[in-house]
Amino acid sequence: MTPHPTEPPVPHASPAEVFTRSLDLLLAKDIDGWVALWAPDGVFEFPFALPGAPHRLEGRDAISGYMSDYPDHIDLRSFEDLTVHRTEDPATIVVELRGTGRAVATGRAFDMPYIQVVTVHDGQFTRFRDYWNGALVADAFDGEIPVGAARSGEAR
User: Could you tell me which residues are beta bridge partners of residue 137?
Assistant: First the structure.
């Protein structure tokens, strides 16, 4: 039986299981469920963040604020070419994938490659480094990606 999207994380879940669950929640546009996968002091980092966007979010509340309007702007349709690489640290995986979807405002499709370095403890994300290049999808959003603009309380 599949748990309800907003059920709490499973403490014994592997990093790959938590990551896969997070993709299902994003596709379901269940942002509250996705945020619930984060440890209260989790850190979400964007090493290649666009100018004006945060490079680091600290804590579940900051992550929730950042993601709250995500489905209003980005309609994710699928994740393709998913490859999970295990590391010497059993709590950390490196993931390669492509996210496909459309920009809500323009209706234009996008296909975004990602590399993500994810650390999970007790079934929750504690650190998530999201390596993506906004320039690759800027055309779908008429040059300006509306998600991720800096908000108060976010580190740059």
Answer: none
